[in-house]
Amino acid sequence: MADKTTFKLPDLGEGLPDATIVEWSVEVGDTIRLDDPLVSMETAKAVVEVPSPVSGKVLELAGEPGDVIETGAVLATFEIDPDLPQRAEGQDTGHHHGPKPTKGTGSKAPSNGDQVIASDDGGAISDAGDAAPEGSAGEGERADSGTVVGAMQSSDTVHAERASAVGGVRAMPAVRALARKLKVDLARVRATGADGVVTMTDVKQAAADGSAALRPSPSGRRAGGDGTAASEAASAAAPSPQPLSRGERGSTAQRTALSASGRPMRTQPPTVSASGQPEQLKGVRRNMARVMADAHAKVVPTTLSDDADIHAWTQGNDMTARLVRAICAAARAVPALNAWFDGDKLTRTLHPHVDLGIAVDTDDGLFVPALRNADMLDALGVREGVNRLRAQVEDRSIPASELGGYTISLSNFGMFAGRYATPVIVPPCVAIVAAGRARHQITPVIGGFESHKVIPLSVTFDHRACTGGEAARFLRAMLDDLALGS
Predict the structure, then answer these.
(1) Is-contact 21 50, C-beta < 8 A?
(2) For residue 139, what is the enclosing H or E element?
């Protein structure tokens, strides 16, 4: 009898308890070779390509695109083919099954007293400020090569995202995920990448001009250009309401806002919800929900607000760059807010440098990439760094190491709307600065009144680690720096 083996979803290097299936590279009955692409999985940080652990026939696949699979759960079942290459018995694959041991965010890493658990997902931050791999390699152990995925095979070579051909279309897993989201048929997209690879730009262009919209298949499901059904990501638009016939006017299947007398009426009891179907959170939003709940339970937040008068600014000032500069100036004046706090051990770590977390809003959820050494950058360097981080977040190419380890964070929500805010502090950080929408206000000056432009600022701090006086002095230092003309 042929040997059968099951493959469990490995820990994809981010300490998350689950991942979402984006796309299978094989079907049941196919023969796959060792380390060939098996499935693309979406985590809170990236779309990751998982390779096959064996060579053989695919007997069973665990779910469909969009399904959430827990780390350590069976992902696929294979019938091993002894005539094809196999991994040597006992050879380390770098896979780690099952959830990692829980660590308190902000606590010391058990393997090294000089490391601090700092990232949102529990990664350790080394003295150099980079995220250290889980289970730091000791003597004689192979070091992780440092990618988002972590080691996925026995050598130091790891599997990064690469273009795979499915249904005759060559594209990266992240590109396929974007196509599903934008309802774009990859088979109809004009590829401009090397060797005929469809790029992010190609998909966005096709979505913008409508040249490759998904078409419903005869079965009623929208078929993706990569040969897979995409009904999960591309639901058909609801038809417009049609006039009711005489026999349908009394049907409970239809709702009306007016009674027979023409007066407004309630169509359902107030305790009954009539809105939509429950939607399972996945990927980034799923992780965001966990992180926010954990932060809410651990932090004692307090917020101070004031308006920064920027009347003296000269034309051409970059608001984001000036905010970053002001935060760095305030961190030098009051280091207490540029710090990490361990609520379990009641220890505080003040940082001599500023790694600024920049909140980036996307349709998939909130990302907070770190602008490293922000205190060493000039205005041009800040702008280039912020643009790079935003571009990497948008195309989901940002390394997991850049999504944690920041020492203080900034939310510039004012680019959309709003004045003041009470943003959430993610441990082990102790402060976050929020900038609202700039406006003009009447300001008294000697001899009368003037219209000055101001930026609403809110500084939310963990009152366990910072005093109100420290937070107020930090905010004062920001206001003073922003008041300068250049």
Answers:
(1) no
(2) none
* E-assigned strand segments in 199-334: 301-309
Q: Which residues pair with 198 in a beta bridge?
A: 171
Q: Specify whether the backbone of 15 is left (phi greater than 0), alpha (psi in -120 to 50) or beta.
A: left
Confidence (pLDDT) at 2: 67
Q: What is the pLDDT of residues 380-401, one digit of tens each?
A: 999 999 999 999 988 888 888 8
248-262, 328-342, 429-443, range with the lowest pLDDT:
248-262
Q: What is the pLDDT of residue 199?
A: 85
**What's the pLDDT score for residue 335?**
96
Tell me the per-residue pLDDT of 232-248, one tens digit each, with 9 for 90 and over: 443 344 444 455 444 44
What 184-192 contacts at long range (C-beta under 8 Å, 24+ apart), as own/partner pairs, is 184/212, 184/213, 184/214, 184/225, 185/212, 185/213, 185/214, 185/215, 185/223, 185/224, 185/225, 186/212, 186/224, 186/225, 186/226, 187/212, 187/224, 187/225, 187/226, 188/212, 188/225, 189/225
Residue 437 backbone dihedrals phi, psi, to 5 degrees: -75, 125
- Residue 57: how many CB atoms within 10 A of its CB? 18
Cα separation, 310 vs 284, in Å, equals 36
What are the two backbone dihedrals, phi and then psi, of residue 108, each rounded to the nearest 5 degrees? -70, 145
> What letter represents residue 469's amino acid?
G
CA distance 125 to 111: 12
Q: What is the DSSP string of 345-410?
A: TTEEEE-SS--EEE-EEETTEEE--EETTGGG--HHHHHHHHHHHHHHHHTT---GGGGS--SEEE
Taking the C-alpha atoms of residue 231 and residue 223, their distance in angstroms, rounded to an integer, is 7
Q: DSSP alpha helices (H): ranges in 195-264?
A: 200-209
User: What whole-number distance in Å separates Cα of residue 203 and Cα of residue 186?
Assistant: 8
DSSP conformation class of 187: G
Contacts of 396 (CB under 8 A, 6+ apart): 46, 47, 174, 177, 178
User: What Rg do the C-alpha atoms of the chain give, in angstroms?
Assistant: 27
Find out whether 473 and 334 touch, Cβ atoms under 8 Å: yes
